[in-house]
Amino acid sequence: MNSDNYCFCELAPLYALDLLSEEERAWVEQQLVECPELAQELAEYQTAAAAIPYSSPTVEMKADLKERLFDRLGLDNPVTVEEKTPPSPFLSVRSQELKWRPHSRVAGVSIARLHIDPIKREIVGLLRAEPGVRYPFHIHATGEEIYMLEGDLVIENQVYGAGDYIRSRAGSTHSPHTNGGCMFFFRTSMDDEYPDLATVS
């Protein structure tokens, strides 16, 4: 299905149920970034999806169900069955699993999203910029955190390098740039404002 034919109202329920392809998930998340008002709609779907398991009536399992099932399949009935490993309590993304995508508005910048929280309106990820890139002037809706991994980043005439941590308060503004290119971890709001880009579009 071509992304031109995607519809948020059709994909959002499937997003809440975790039934989308990687491309479709990325499209929904991009819509959340560009249209903050959609987060409430998605949150309602997620609340409804979370309630589904509790809305079904409880059905008692027959005591001999396992034996009958193994018999029908022609299998030996094991004396013990290992319990399924419970889901991991944390999310991990391996370096080889990173999906770098070009920034939709800034040439020379690519982003690998690690996590999007539509309720907190927060994006966590990695940003990579080519030498000479200047990021557009923007206003932080909430605090922004940056941890430099490599290269240089210039903010307000201060040069930051690998291992440096920068936190910008809500309401602060800047237009950082890099001389030799850089890569950093970031946590920021989906509601940051870009006045210059808004006037262009």
What would your notes on this structure say?
- This protein is α+β, with helices and mostly antiparallel strands.
- It contains 5 helices and 10 strands, in the order ααααββββββββββα.
- α1 (8-16) crosses α2.
- The mean pLDDT is 85.
Short description, anyone?
This protein has 201 residues and is an alpha+beta fold.
Which helices and strands appear, and what pairs or packs with what?
Elements: H1 8-16, H2 22-34, H3 38-55, H4 65-72, E1 101-102, E2 109-117, E3 122-129, E4 138-139, E5 144-151, E6 153-155, E7 158-160, E8 165-168, E9 173-174, E10 182-189, H5 195-200
Antiparallel strand pairs: 1-2, 2-3, 3-10, 4-9, 5-8, 5-10, 6-7
Structural class: alpha+beta
Q: In DSSP terms, counting alpha (H) and pi (I) runs of 4 or more, how many helices?
A: 5
The poorly predicted ranges are none
Q: Report the average pLDDT across residues.
A: 85
Helix content: 25-40%
Largest sheet: 6 strands, antiparallel
**Numbering strands along the chain, what is their spatial order in the largest sheet?**
1-2-3-10-5-8
For the structure shown, list the relevant keywords.
5 helices, alpha+beta, 201 residues, two-stranded antiparallel ribbon
